[in-house]
């Protein structure tokens, strides 16, 4: 398969590397002028969850391109960008996707179907990575888990294109979890990020956050407060929202602290995101800013999140 990774971010880099190792042809689209800035290789310093967290340290030569003509021959365009960049990426790709499948591989707070409405619906597949980390110069630190998620949003592809994407991941050694209501799944993941990252910013660091039962419990209470907004948007809360809503906050906090504070890949990735500078107010606060803005538009009070606004505004 010939694959174009849209952007040279952390997610695109680690999965692009895995796909090339599995025998696929991988290139990266970058903005004009960025190819020279990025250079011809990526320095990988990652842990690979497909191999039980095996450490990978290598220099990977990559192909960067600064144009995408409508007549290209890519089979797949993988789009994994920050939520506030997705609309711009879709606008650029409109009229340029050709016959390629477009895998939207990341988070979104707007209605997913509306964001990609200018793309051919039967060419769109939705997914979500299991990875974390960031770039420092040409070096990517972090890694990926074995599992990824694929799902459906309204008229998104459920046929051969979806199966081809699934086979791409499984053929590269990943396991795939399927989610039927991917819209609700994405929105819950968004409020979960908002709750956790707000308290990380308030605590000042990941270690300070994980070392404080009160801070982690605060995350749980923030997410609990946001669940009615998820419903107001048209999402259907499922098991994650139920756990956050009905289990004691202290119990959920204990589980989160054990998970993210232990010696495991999830904890390692969380710390690498911070160490590469990707937990600053601009990036980490994006989720809470989006959630609070929509709550205000809908007239839904989120007093706990409002009280935390100074840390992410």
Automatic annotation (TrEMBL):
Family annotation (Pfam families): ApbA (PF02558)
All copies of domain Ketopantoate reductase N-terminal, residue ranges: 3-127
Alphabetized InterPro entries for the sequence: KPR_N, NAD(P)-bd_dom_sf
Transmembrane segments: none
Stated name of the protein: 2-dehydropantoate 2-reductase
Originating organism: Lentzea fradiae
């Amino acid at each position: 398969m010939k694959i174009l990774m849209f952007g040279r971010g952390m997610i695109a880099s680690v999965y692009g590397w895995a796909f090339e190792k599995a025998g696929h042809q991988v290139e990266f689209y970058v903005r004009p002028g960025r190819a020279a800035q990025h250079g011809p290789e990526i320095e990988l310093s990652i842990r690979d969850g497909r191999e039980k967290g095996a450490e990978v340290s290598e220099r990977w030569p990559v192909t960067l391109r600064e144009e995408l003509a409508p007549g290209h021959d890519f089979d797949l365009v993988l789009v994994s960008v920050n939520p506030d960049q997705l609309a711009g990426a879709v606008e650029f790709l409109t009229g340029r996707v050709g016959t390629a499948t477009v895998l939207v591989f990341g988070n979104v707070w707007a209605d997913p179907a509306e964001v990609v409405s200018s793309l051919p619906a039967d060419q769109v597949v939705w997914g979500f990575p299991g990875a974390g980390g960031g770039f420092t110069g040409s070096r990517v630190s972090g890694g990926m888990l074995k599992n990824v998620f694929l799902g459906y949003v309204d008229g998104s592809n459920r046929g051969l294109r979806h199966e081809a994407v699934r086979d791409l991941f499984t053929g590269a050694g990943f396991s795939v979890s399927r989610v039927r209501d991917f819209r609700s799944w994405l929105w819950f993941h968004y409020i979960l990020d908002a709750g956790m990252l707000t308290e990380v910013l308030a605590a000042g660091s990941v270690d300070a956050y994980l070392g404080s039962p009160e801070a982690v419990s605060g995350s749980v209470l923030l997410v609990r407060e946001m669940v009615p907004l998820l419903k107001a948007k048209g999402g259907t809360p499922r098991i994650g929202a139920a756990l956050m809503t009905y289990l004691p906050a202290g119990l959920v906090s204990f589980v989160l602290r054990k998970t993210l504070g232990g010696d495991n890949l999830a904890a390692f990735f969380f710390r690498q995101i911070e160490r590469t500078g990707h937990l600053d107010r601009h990036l980490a606060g994006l989720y809470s800013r989006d959630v609070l803005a929509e709550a205000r538009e809908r007239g839904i009070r989120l007093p706990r999140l409002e009280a935390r606004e100074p840390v992410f505004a």
